[in-house]
Every structure is written in C-alpha cells, then in structure tokens.
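Pipeline run #58 for the internal structure catalog. This entry was flagged by the ingest filter as a single-chain record with no existing model, so it goes straight to prediction. Upstream metadata was stripped on purpose; only the residue string is passed forward. Reviewer on rotation: M.T. Logging verbosity set to normal.
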Amino acid sequence: MDRIETIIIGAGVVGLAIARRLAQQGHEVLVLESETTPGTATSSRNSGVIHAGIYYKPGSLKARLCVEGRKKLYAYAQTRGIPHKNCGKLIVATDEAQITKLKEWQHIAEQNGVTGLRLITPDEAHAMEPEVFCTAALHAPMTGIIDVHPYMLALEGDAEEAGAMIALKTLVTGGAITDDGFVLDVAGDAPSQISCTYLINAAGLGAQNVGRNLRGLDAATVPPQVLAKGNYFSLTGRQPFSMLIYPLPVLGSSGLHAFCDIAGRVRFGPDVEWVEQIDYHVDPHRLPQFEEAVRRYWPGLPSGALQPDYCGIRPKIGRASPHDTDFMIQDTSAHGIRNLVCLYGIESPGLTSSLAIGDYVGELVRKE
C-alpha cells in the first residue's frame, strides 16, 4: 500500500488553495479529484464575484475569511496576472422598507472591517448606473470579479511547483481511521488503497459522503447536506451596467444579481431551486421569475432578452441564506480525530475566501 504524508480530497478552488499552502509549508501533498479536471463542479459554476464581506455575522469564519481572502485574492491576481476587475457593487433597495436592511448591513460590514461603504440616494445611484431603479443603495467599491479558470490554474501551478501531486479520475469511496493516520479506498483507473498521516476533506458537494464513509469518524459530526441549485440566465444585447447590481437576498442565496464577466457577458442569477440530486440542466420555464425579479431594479429589461445559460449547486448545510450560516471547518476539537480537517458548507463566499481558507487549514495542520 502506498503511503503519503498529506492527502487532500477535492481539487476545487478551495482544495487547490489548501494544497498550495500545505505544499509551501513542507507537506508532501497528494490531491485526489474524482473528475477529469480540477474545479468542474462548484468552483466553475458560480458568478466569479470577489465579495467584500458585507453581510456575514461579525466574528464568523465567513466574515473573517472573506475579508482576509478578498485582500489576498486581489494581491494574488495582480501579481500573477489573473484577469480580474475591481468594478464595485450596488446593493439596491427597491422600496422604502428595505432601506433599513441596507443600514443594518452597513453597520455589520463596518464591524467586519469592510471600509469604503456608502449609503447613497437614488439620484447618486442613477448617476453611477443610469439604468438602475432604487429607493436607496449601498455602494461597495471593493467588490469585483475574477476569471476563475486561470485562478485555479495558478493555484494548481503553485501547488505542483512546491511538490504537490494531483490525481484526477480518482474517487474516494471509503476509508478508515488507523493508529497512525488514515487508509482510503480509491476507485479510478486502478482501484487501490492509500494511507496518509494528515487528511483534509475538501470534497465540496461530496464532503458529507466522504465523512459518512470514513470508518471511525462519529457520524454525528457530519452535518446534513442541502442542495440549492442556482440557475443563471444570460442577456442578449448591450451591457446595461458597469458595476455588479445586487437586490436584497432571498432565502438560500444573495438574490438575482446582475454581473458582467471578464469577457463582457452579462448574466443574472443565481436563483434558488431546492433539489434532491445534482442536475446541471437549466429549466427555461424559470424565465418569467427571472424577468420579474430583474425588472424590480432594471425596469428597462427588454422582453425576450434573457435566455437560459448555466447553473451550479451550492454545498449548503441548511436552508438559510449564505449570510445566516457559517463555514464549518472541523479539526480535532470538533470530532476528536488527530490530523483530520473536514470542510462542510463551503458555499459563497468560498471563492473569495479560498486563499484565507488555505492559510487557516495550514495553521490547523502545521507539522510539529
């Protein structure tokens, strides 16, 4: 049986960031990924937004790691030449009652260390974005977008340069806790077993399955998984906004926001569709819901301008908005197992937080 010091399950953006960090710390690292390429699930099926850290409960992992991660991500993208844009964001209220919520978020964001936020009038918002309708808006100048694919390639390159290895088409089907670490059952081109001293479960949508199938780990420490499908529709025609436009959140997501990717394509989403299994088909019958939601802040949306685009599945641990739940990053103090770190519920702002999550896990498994 082969043995390696540290195994990371999952080569999404978070798994790659952890691999980069641990390899640079001197760990011998192997990343096991079930798909044919890294980041094909959650990491490549989101908005690519660099979040500011506005909504999250002060003191939470999301608040801390998002703010830290944003700073690290902008610096990393700049240094590595990764396409990104600090375009800013407007969070818009579309009736008077919603203005109170904007003020609450401004206060929360300030507690989280977010600077530069400003509550602006409809006239000020209109001057920034002439197509927007609102009763007030919160301007967040530090929000931006990043091209996720080259970002993941850079993380992968850094990890491999530091000695990490990535095994694709390698599914972890089970495993056990042993006296000197862990033994994993893997299915792939050549099904086998592999042992390690340190184990990081960063499997995203598969994290709960990994946890439940790890013999010796108390099943009560594995949280339930809730699948929230987020659909996106794209816009045909001219680009209406220069910034990200966010309405107030709905249960399960940040709301149907408008964003323009690095290539200039305008999309709206994600919505929330609670599902029982992973399915990446976008139902075109959801179009009326999209048009209604978008027209609340963009009354000028032309009829027939939206078309189904893509979707993603959020690895949630509850049916609440991302602002009301926290990342779950478990170490020995949570499950009693030495040298095991399990990451659950790494939804938004996981991309923004990825480098900070890598550093956080690096501190948890720092070699003695």
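catalog note: The chain has a mean pLDDT of 94.
catalog note: DSSP finds nine helices and 21 strands in the chain.
status: ready for reviewer M.T.
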